[in-house]
Amino acid sequence: MVTLYGQSFTREQLLAHVGDISQIARVLPYKLQEGKEEGVYALDVFNGSGLRYTVLASRGMDISSASFNGCPLAWRSATTDAHPAYFDHEGEGGRGWLRSFYGGLVVTCGLTYAGANGEDEGRLYGLHGRISNLPAYNVSYDTRWDGDQYALIVRGKVREATVFGENLELTRTITTYLGSQSIHIHDEVANLGYRTTEHMILYHINIGFPIIAEGARLIAPTVKATPRDADAAEDAERYAVFDAPKAGFREKVYFHEFPTQADQVAVALVNPNISVGGHKGLGIRCCYHQSQLPRFSEWKMLDAGTYVVGLEPANCLVLGRAYERKAGTLQFLEPGEVRQYDLVLDILWGMEAIHNAEQECQRVLKVAEHSA
Questions:
Q1: Mean pLDDT, the chain, as a whole number?
Q2: In whole angstroms, what separates CA 17 from the centre of its chain?
Q3: Strand partners, 54
Q4: pTM for the whole thing?
Q5: Which CATH number fits the domain that encloses residue 21?
Q6: DSSP symbols for 216-270
Q7: How many domains does the chain have?
Q8: Helix or strand or coil: residue 254?
């Protein structure tokens, strides 16, 4: 059965009510025009639940704008969904990535380096890598029934390669279902080359207003939150709460440690004070596997205009490739090796959903405490 608009339908019952399924759910491909966005290939997905999001095939198969029942979910920057031709990777001391960082719900960092720009083994590497500024190929989309369940799927491949260097390929599948309040991301990163290659990947999940506002909070099974630097150390005990925008706010980054007994973890940003679609309380939860992504960073940036909190599951910290190499934590892909990553983004709609997320977080912490 499919649940829509407070009612349950079989496939046959639902199709009897519409001229075509696109009346309530579809994948809509198009190209942007004007300014730096001109020529960007995008696909809008909406699934009948109020969930809508945009996949940018021209920008690494990442998810740009997203909303639920008309309420924006992601923070958006002033750079717009710029075409990858404008990517200035080497500019501004290796921080040119920021010139085309549109914010968005999910921006991928990697595939051979992520985090801070800097030098590693005699080479300079820019902030957060190249993958989010590379266009995809073999892009496809599909909608299909499986019994009474209707899937909406977008796929594509992104290659990061150079002569005398890496040859990595990301294959991404993004799936949602009719009436669902979740987005499923399945990634496969393959080393198509003939040399062992450094591999860093980080998922930059950027949540903005109105979820991020005074009264918002982080729900996470955190055992320890380590400040990245002196700025983060100031008010570190408040890493999980968020205030109103403040001009001149200096970003704070915290490295979270979660119970090792739980492979699958869930981290959520929620705001119990806002009302959407007749329900009070809204949030976003990110679920992933620590065996795939053993690191997690929180980016707390409450500056006026740059008012955003980032959830960042990764296989590395954000301190750069040289740091990971020196620490012995830098990961590698052998020739022919394929690494898989799975993330689920859930909309938490209403106080009951937020309460259940809090209860599950406490359950994970109690299990870990009893296992210690």
A1: 96
A2: 35
A3: 44
A4: 0.97
A5: 2.70.98.10
A6: -EEE---SEEEESSHHHHTTGGGTTB--S--TTPPPEEEEEE--TT-SEEEEEEE
A7: 1
A8: strand
